[in-house]
Amino acid sequence: MPDAELVLRSTRVITPGGMRAASVAVAGGTITAVLPYDAGPPAGARLEDLGDDVLLPGLVDTHVHVNDPGRTEWEGFSTATRAAAAGGITTLIDMPLNSLPPTTTVGHLRTKKQVAARRAHIDVGFWGGALPDNLADLRPLHDAGVFGFKAFLSPSGVDEFPHLGREHLARSMAEIAGFGGLLVVHAEDPHRLAAAPQRGGPKYADFLASRPHDAEATAVAHLVEQAERLHARVHVLHLSSGEALPLIAVAKARGVPVTVETCPHYLTLKAEEVPDGASEFKCCPPIREAANQDLLWQALADGTIDCVVTDHSPSTADLKTDDFATAWGGVSGLQLSLPAVWTEARTRGHDLVDVVRWMSAHTARLVGLDARKGAIEAGRDADFAVFAPDDTFTVDPAALQHRNRVTAYAGRTLHGVVRSTWLRGERILADGEFAEPRGRLLGRTDGPAPPPERPTRERQT
Ligand SMILES: [Zn+2]
């Protein structure tokens, strides 16, 4: 019998081999075994019977802007990680902007860690930033445990995080490839953006025209070309345009080390439905047409797109003005990403195994956390979401946990309710109640989970 303090039993457990009835044994915060459904719990273990609710691995969201410290009125570690836990997310990787300072030196990383420690309800790791002038900081940041480096090819929206021109991109890419790191890129071409009509104002169609498809396709083409030339691992952030997909598919087939993510809002919201002036829908690249959305789903199905992440990027409500040109760009999606994606996925013939692959297994692998996160199997952290996939709810902004309750999903009816969320074998959220923060700060160099300790006492229930 494996060590177990706790056994979670469900008729529907999502394992790497698919969904099946199983009993999952947990000790010392780690999964020790996935047993047959009717295996009796080992002596002394507490049994948690989940009935027909689905037990899935906690989601790993590798694209979140927590903005703390410096813009904590926009978001913070406490509120962001509560929203994440409420959405079934148990690990997030924080983007290097829009906090002050941005995570572009080891000293800044230390500051971020100090702020995140003791406030995080889930596990938190950090991306570093690649700027035109911090080439010498990249290796030290890598050694200090960031999971990779974010760069922009066009203006980022904040002055303290300038974008990389082509020369700086090549230099940063070569440096990062030199130590085996990962470069993650906001890929919109600044010249194509500048050439597009910039009308401003409240009309969504004008905003959409200002961020055309070919800005993404051009930037992705350049990125892939450079990655191939420099043998560099690159990851395309928040792809919204289907126009870039064929060249990504070709590059992948040729063995170029490129991966791609998209976001719940690109997969579930449509340009045709965005009301004029409704800048809660504004993000860059933009939410595009329904026909384009079909291409993104096809690319998820065939593996051209690897993963789905939130790009949760909030601001205070006053910055979400009705002028699309000047309103803050970012959709707040942490708490709703799983039900939003699941609602659309099920109508397109996908199952929860697919959703877990895109939102947990592949994101864990992207950042090298796949020895401990992203699957329900022996040896991984006991991070779970308990999910009722057939229940529905209507999004009420008042029920959201992120700091500014601005949402593009208000009033939508979604499928799938997160009943509880578990981090290393402890329930951190149940029935809307949060436990004390017990998230850990993760580093790229932490390695796999240590072997579980033998239980020495009865666990409190
Ligand atoms: Zn982002």
UniProtKB/TrEMBL annotation:
As cofactor, the record names: Zn(2+)
Q: Does the keyword Lyase apply?
A: no
- Uppermost EC category: hydrolase
Per UniProt, the keywords (alphabetical) are: Hydrolase, Metal-binding, Zinc
One example GO MF annotation: allantoinase activity
**Domain of life, source organism:** Bacteria
Q: Where is the Amidohydrolase-related domain?
A: 54-426
Annotated pathway, please?
Nitrogen metabolism; (S)-allantoin degradation; allantoate from (S)-allantoin: step 1/1
Q: Which Gene3D superfamilies match?
A: Metal-dependent hydrolases (3.20.20.140)
Q: Name one Pfam family in it.
A: Amidohydro_1
Instruction: Report residue spans for region: Disordered.
Output: 437-461
Family matches, as InterPro entries: Allantoinase (IPR017593), Amidohydro-rel (IPR006680), DHOase/Allantoinase_Hydrolase (IPR050138), Metal-dep_hydrolase_composite (IPR011059), Metal_Hydrolase (IPR032466)
What are the EC numbers? Answer: 3.5.2.5
Family listed: Belongs to the metallo-dependent hydrolases superfamily. Allantoinase family.
Q: How does it assemble?
A: Homotetramer.
Output this protein's name.
Answer: allantoinase
The lineage is: Bacteria, Bacillati, Actinomycetota, Actinomycetes, Kitasatosporales
